[in-house]
Design brief:
With about 325 residues, the protein is mainly beta. It is built from three helices and 19 strands. The strands form two sheets. A 16-stranded antiparallel beta barrel has the order 1-3-4-5-6-9-10-11-12-13-14-15-16-17-18-19. A two-stranded antiparallel ribbon has the order 7-8.
């Protein structure tokens, strides 16, 4: 009788143990402020100044003694200024497995390998006012994704099958039927960290019309300043795919920490843009840390073909 009661107690405790090993994290960004646009008007930044406001859930669960774990993520953006219609997971959602050889996930609106590569050599860390021009879509829908880290080298690969509509491929971007049949997409990147030096490379191929693009870049941390440089070459037209650039984009930048302030300066040259003209852009930005999670952000950006834009806001990560 005692053995039966003991066995029953152990059996009842097992689910609790398994549950305790699981990990679910609620995270997000609150970001709001004001921007000054080319129309010379000051507006509330509904989509944030430094980053898009968002709320996400991510989690993992070890799968016994297999060395694997189940992982998932669901992230939704929200409007900082007013109520707005959105859908759950509009900023990414996936489920997959994490193993010793890397992770494999299946999902939608997933950040692409090209995004991660350029983000690594972006002084603003892909802020809303970044000068990034990607060689491939920044996000991929209905994709299979692999990430593996081997020492200082991180490799990412994403693939969209050939039966997915182009609207799903690049989120809300729509392309006329006349653009041709969609035959999927493949995006691959590598990030190699060698102490204070980081090197990146990425290649993206979009099936319709055989369009493709690549990215190379690097950063070097001198402690008193961190230098950045990147180059993108893409034959995808910005008119039909807003997240891509047609032609070549060169960018250099620097981050200089001064106490709680991080000062950023960048220069970008796009040759050509959708109109076929060269565009040179200068960006100056500052990020002042009030705490480990809260910053005040200010920026000013001046392209050669339009007027100055600027913004100021506050961001809190949780």
């Amino acid at each position: 009788m005692k053995k039966s009661l003991l066995a029953l107690a152990v059996a009842a405790a097992l689910p609790a143990v398994a549950q305790a090993q699981s990990s679910v994290t609620l995270y997000g960004v609150a970001d709001a402020g004001f921007t000054y646009g080319t129309d010379k008007r000051v507006k509330f930044a509904n989509s944030g100044v430094h980053g898009v406001p968002r709320l996400g859930i991510r989690g993992s669960e070890p799968l016994g003694n297999t060395g694997m774990s189940a992982i998932f993520l669901l992230e939704t953006g929200w409007n900082a200024g007013r109520e707005g219609v959105t859908y759950l997971g509009n900023r990414g959602g996936f489920v997959g497995l994490n193993t010793k050889m890397g992770s494999v996930t299946f999902g939608s609106s997933v950040l692409s390998p090209s995004f991660f590569a350029l983000n690594e050599v972006d002084p603003t860390a892909s802020a809303n006012y970044t000068l990034n021009v990607y060689g491939g879509p920044a996000r991929l829908d209905n994709s299979i994704n692999y990430t593996g880290t081997f020492g200082g080298l991180t490799v990412r690969l994403s693939h969209v099958s050939d039966n997915d509509a182009l609207g799903d491929l690049v989120g809300s971007t729509a392309v006329p039927v006349a653009a041709g049949p969609v035959v999927g997409a493949t995006d691959v990147s590598a990030i190699w960290k060698l102490g204070t030096l980081t090197l990146v490379g990425a290649y993206s191929q979009i099936g319709f019309l055989g369009q493709s693009g690549y990215t190379v870049g690097g950063s070097f941390d001198m402690k008193i300043a961190k230098l950045f440089a990147s180059y993108v070459d893409s034959d995808v037209n910005v008119v039909t795919l807003s997240s891509l650039a047609q032609g070549k984009a060169m960018r250099v930048g620097v981050n200089i920490p001064v106490g709680a302030l991080l000062a950023t300066a960048e220069y970008r040259r796009v040759d050509p843009n959708a109109a076929g003209a060269n565009v040179n852009t200068v960006l100056l930005a500052g990020q002042y840390s009030l705490s480990n999670r809260t910053t005040v952000n200010v920026y000013g950006s001046k392209p050669s073909n339009t007027k100055l834009t600027a913004g100021v806001g506050i961001r809190h990560n949780f």
